[in-house]
């Protein structure tokens, strides 16, 4: 049972290390964490995609501030 517990501890540690690494690649840590905190991610949409979302799924768009 101790070996299973040790293996599980290594798996959890590898999971944490891998995810921290993935947060730091690309545009950087803050770019990846901000959508998790705010609930919104800024993405570039084509005019057709934006029109579709406004007509059919407006709750998925962040409210625009004037």
Overall description:
This protein has 66 residues and is mostly helical. It is built from 3 helices and no strands. It has helices spanning 2-24, 29-38, 47-56. The longest helix is centred in the N-terminal third of the chain and has 23 residues, at 2-24. It is elongated and about 55 Å long. The model has no long low-confidence stretch (mean pLDDT 90).
Can you lay out the helices and strands and say which pair or pack?
Elements lengths: L1 H23 L4 H10 L8 H10 L10
Task: Please sum up the structure shown.
This protein has 66 residues and is mostly helical. The protein is built from three helices and no strands. The chain is 65% helix and 0% strand.
Radius of gyration: 19 Å
Q: Give unreliable regions as ranges.
A: none
How many strands? 0
Strand content: under 5%
Q: Which secondary-structure class do the elements indicate?
A: mainly alpha
Order of helix and strand elements from N to C terminus = HHH
Mean pLDDT: 90
Number of helices: 3
The separation of the N and C termini measures: 61 Å
Specify the overall morphology: elongated
Biggest β-sheet description: none
What is the percent of helical residues? 55-70%
């Amino acid at each position: 049972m101790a070996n299973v517990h040790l293996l599980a501890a290594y798996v959890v540690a590898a999971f944490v290390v891998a995810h921290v690494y993935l947060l730091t690649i690309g545009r950087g840590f803050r770019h990846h964490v901000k959508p998790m905190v705010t609930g919104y991610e800024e993405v570039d949409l084509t005019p057709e995609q934006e029109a579709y979302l406004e007509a059919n799924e407006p709750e998925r768009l962040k409210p625009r501030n004037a």
